[in-house]
Amino acid sequence: MREAVGANFALAIECHSRFDTESAIQVAKAIERFRPIWLEEPVSPDNVDAMAKVRSMSRVPIAAGENIYTRYGFEPYLEKQALSVIQPDMCKCGGLLEARRIAALAEVYHVPIAPHGVASALGKTAFGHVCATVPNFMILEWVYGRTAQDKFT
What we know:
By secondary structure, the chain is α/β, with parallel strands linked by helices.
């Protein structure tokens, strides 16, 4: 993929929590040379210590958050420096205001946010407005075209 798109495009690798800790570390080390902007949810988001270990053993930034809820859920990840980038899902984390609170908490730890932005057109617009108020905003995930959700609305 890096050869196909060149160095001017960012690559993000999604893992969907498919790996155990040791396998995730191996994957992270194997992809380091391609310089992805992150490796997303390499291990289950319910294991903060495993996520922290993967991050400490790799030069690839580790991202997660679409399955972490409220600022209280993100707090241990930030305290243990388990994530390089947090990705709150504004539909699931407690809403727009809670997403803003999560971003403010991450800002204290100097961690950027890249919200999980799979939503309807209205949802994407709301997410964009929240992101415009966040100093540590990095990027908003955006699904191009129609999503399965759009087909039913």
